[in-house]
């Protein structure tokens, strides 16, 4: 995700109303194989939700000062908040079951696989937290 145009009152046509922000998302995904269409992996879907969180932060900003609106001039942890929040929808049962269907049969995502997905989400979460803390210690 990146910005095309930032929200700004200074750069608006008349100076009295804010120029609205515009964002774009470029998504790469697994290519088709043989006769099968291109099917997104769970991680690719999670990435789309993540990047859409950045896009929402950019497009829904109410800050009219272009240098600090949307995703500009924001601390890295604050920029990651909406994107990581949006990732949670990938683990929300109703949301996932609504978008994860077998491409040929239309069969819903299997419940046992969904439960494994939830379990895998928190596997070694403590180790990942320690990694983040160690990085902060290096640069903080």
UniProtKB/TrEMBL annotation:
Its BP terms in the Gene Ontology are: peptide metabolic process; proteolysis
Cofactors, names only = Zn(2+)
Q: Reply yes or no: does the keyword Magnesium apply.
A: no
Show where the Peptidase M3A/M3B catalytic domain sits: 15-134
Q: Which domain of life is it from?
A: Eukaryota
For molecular function, the Gene Ontology terms on record are:
metal ion binding; metalloendopeptidase activity
Q: How is the cofactor bound?
A: Binds 1 zinc ion.
Q: What's in the keyword line of the UniProt record?
A: Hydrolase, Metal-binding, Metalloprotease, Protease, Zinc
Of the GO CC terms on this record, one is: chloroplast
Q: Which Pfam families match?
A: Peptidase_M3 (PF01432)
UniProt record similarity statement? Belongs to the peptidase M3 family.
Name recorded for this polypeptide: Peptidase M3A/M3B catalytic domain-containing protein
Starting at the broadest rank, the lineage of the source organism is: Eukaryota, Viridiplantae, Streptophyta, Embryophyta, Tracheophyta
